[in-house]
Structure formats: structure tokens, C-alpha cells
Amino acid sequence: MSTTDPAATAALERRLAAIGLNMPAEDLAPLARLVEGLDAAAAALREPPLRVAAEPATALRLGQASG
Amino acid sequence: MTAPLHEATIAELSRRIAARELSPVELAQSCIARIQALDPALNSVLLLLEENAMAEARTAEAEIAAGRRRGPLHGIPIGLKDIYETAGIRTTAHSAVLRDHVPAEDATTVRLLRAAGAVIPAKLSTWEFAIGGTSFDLPWPPARNPWDRTRDPTGSSSGSAVAVAAGLLPGAMGSDTGGSIRNPAAWCGIAGHKPTYGLVSRRGVLPLAWSLDHAGPMAWTAEDCALMMSVLAAHDPEDPASADVPAPDFAAAIGEGRRHALAGLRIGVVRHFFETDVPCTPTVLAAMEDSIRALRDLGAAVSDLTLPSFNEYGAPGNIISRAESWTIHEAWLKQDATRYGAYGRQRLASGAFLTAADLLQAQRRRAEVIARTFQAMRGLDAVVFPTARDTAGPMGVDSLSPDGLPAFYARPFNLVGGPALSVCNGFSAEGLPIGLQIAARPFQDATVLRIGDSVERALGTRARRPVLEAMAA
């Protein structure tokens, strides 16, 4: 998502509305940059592919952790 | 020579209280007077609990006089980052959202501190809900660095670091989701310990991201952090991540270090973190080389090692942190996002755009990077690298440097869960403190604190304090 592209900003506003989140107008540009950064991080996690059997660390358990 | 009360460590104060040379009432009065004189220029205290603290100090004094000393924290003032819930006492997270939040119960750690006889004189400033950086649009101003008030202490446990560095309090509690204990410890020249995930309860500590949050101590020295850990490390059935393990013997580890320095320990230097992955400044690099020489002189076998690249920790850490914090704040943000400061609400809201697959991919990468990290650390007692890339920046910092690279090296051990301590390992030419990070495999907290204590003593950094008295005029 480009932070200077009006179409991208409009798309961000639509996504915010769909989520039900009413953010001040001055937040849109910084929020777009943050979302762009997270999108890049998410893309980085998909490459290189993991083994199919690689399981998520959904609950961190260390040693004799009881949780 | 006896140190003035505001320069005495918890260990020294504790010895003087035990020997009946110092009254807990006198100590509490001294802390409160110093807060009242100096904190208006530092903004570390959100709520001063003078009446409560004096009552607690009088109780401590009476118990000790009657021969019922509870241990090393009896009568010692300990401040709380204002995300630690306190029964009947406002707990705001430095946010308008919780401006009137008065919990019914103490956090488990607060209960443990009270049971050990600690005195709680203040709730301390933080970044809003512990998400950073420094904001100027919150109901209370941000804390300032006592080494130079134009500099940022960084956060999010900013008030805790500032209060200890300024000698307002001998110890404080912080929390660390992505460096929030270690980073301000480094920039304020104190010791801060992020315990092994699960070793210290988070029940009653307002969460930022459950699977990355750690509660831990901040104090002038690693020894003082060890004294606090001896009270804080306890299984808590009410914290689902709490580890049911025997509490480490922190006093024995410090004693072992005092007798044998670091003889027999094997320490790895994660050189690629700070030389190639995210290069630190020459000032920080010089302090690292001094520390590595000190570790060798203390008897440790020191060698370089390769962990996964720094960036491999960053992406999963960011995704997991944002997804979890959005989940926590979603309802409040939807109700009225403007109650938050701009910095916090933008970062919290960004998590709304992550997908379930993004989070699960991050957790899969996390499992993989944990395995590779601990595999690489096999046979080592600890690893070292800097805490921050540079010394304290101007007020208003982000977690990124101006060049867009991370400003701190904290994230990897939030992701993998092992203990990580920051101690002061030098000063810049401008007199700003520098931090060394010492990390290890899970539950090796006592070893980490032993190494920190030995390094602090070898480098002699604990003799230097910020000069603050002029601010009281």
C-alpha cells in the first residue's frame, strides 16, 4: 500500500469503516505507513516456505512450564 | 564510608536496616522528600503514595524492632510502573482510557513484594499501555532522562528507570514486551532484568501482548535485581504461562561470582547483531570491546557465535505483538479511539489489518527461530550483545533510529523467552550511559545476574551518578 496514493488512502478508510474503527483523519497517513510495514513483515514470513509440518508456537512452553 | 541514602543500593540499605543502623521510616521519608524536590523536573512519578508508604514503613520498623525481619526487601521502597494493579489505588497505564481505574486486587508481584515487607511509595510513568514511543498528548507528561533532561529515557518502563537512576527510589518494577525493561535501563544507566518467560507472574499486570510480556525488576545494580528476583520468582497458578519450577538461588549465584568471578563459564558474543545486521555506533562498539575484555579477565571463555539474523526475530515479533495488542484494545478503540494518544492508537489499530494466517505464520517462524537460537547456544552459559545501538536520543523517541533501523537489540529474547539483563557498561564522551545485554537459555536467570554483577564491578560503572541537585532550586 503506498502512503501517498489517494486511492490507497481511500481503501484504508474503507477497511477502517468495515472494521468499525473511527480514526481521526490525521492518523490515516501514519497508519498507512504502519500497515505497509506490517504487510512487508507478513510477506517476509511467507518466504522461504516452511516445512508443511512446522507447527506454530501458539503457546510458549519452556522447561516445566505448566501453562 | 557510608553512601548517602539516595546513592545506596538495595543491598546496602538492606544490610543497614538489618543492623538497625537505618530505620525504614527514615528511608521512606528520604525517598519521598527527594521525589518532591526533584521529580517535577523528571516526571517519573504519576502518583505519590506518601500516606500509605509511611504507614508501611512504620509497620516494617515495628516488625524489625520486634525481631521479625522478613528478608532483604523488608523496609525497602519499591516503585511500580503504572500498569501493575494495586488494590484500591488508581492504575492508569498512563492513559486517559484508564484514568479512573481502581483495581480491587494487587497484582501477584505486588502481593509478593508486600509480603516481603517492601514499601510502595509511588506509581510510575510509562508509555501509554506500555506501547511506545514517547508521547506528549497523554494526560501526564513523559519522563525525562536524569543524565540529560533534553534526552529521552526511552520506555516503556521510563518512570521506573528514571526514578532509580535519579536515586528517587532504590528499586522499581518494569515490564518488557519488546525491550521495555532493558532499553530504558540502558539509556538511564541502571540494571534491568527481563526474567525467563513464566518465571515471574504477570497476573494483574495490564497486558500488551500476552505471549511476549514479561514482568521484572529494575535497580541500580544486577545484585539488587537478584535480591528482587528472590522475592518475585514464584509459581502463580493464576498466570497461565507461569512455570512450576523451583525458584533459582539468586543469592548463591551472586556469592559464587564474588568468590570465583566467571571462572568456568562459557560466553558467546553475538557479533553479527551489532556489527553487520544492525550496526551500532562506534561509542557502543568500544564499550562492547571493553566488556568482552572484562569477561575474559574475569575468567570466562569467550567466543563469537552465530544466531539467526537479527531481522529473523523482528518480523514475527512485530506481527505477534500487534495482533495480540489489537485483540486486547479492539473494544476500547472502537468505542472511542481519541481517548488514546496518537502514537499508541495508530500502532494498536495497525494490528486490525493482520490476518489469522499472518499470525500463524509468525508463530510458526517463532517456533523455528526459538529452536535455532537454543541449538546455537548449546554449551554456552550466556550470550552478550549491546542493549541499544546508541546512547539516549532527544526527547520523543521511536523504537526505530532515524535511519529506519531498530534502535535496540531487545526483541530476540522476548521472542525466545530466555532471560536477558541490561547492565551499564560505560559512558559516552557526553557522559551518557551505555548498556550491555546478557542473555541465556530459559531459567538461567541466576547465571545472567551473576555475570552482570561481575561485569559491573569489573568496569566500575556503578560509582558514577547523574548530578541532579541543581534541578531542585
UniProtKB/TrEMBL annotation, chain B:
InterPro entries found in the cross-reference section: Amidase, Amidase_dom, AS_sf
Gene3D superfamilies: Amidase signature (AS) domain
Amidase domain segment(s): 26-449
Highest rank taxon of the organism: Bacteria
Name the record gives this protein: Amidase
Organism from which the protein derives: Muricoccus vinaceus
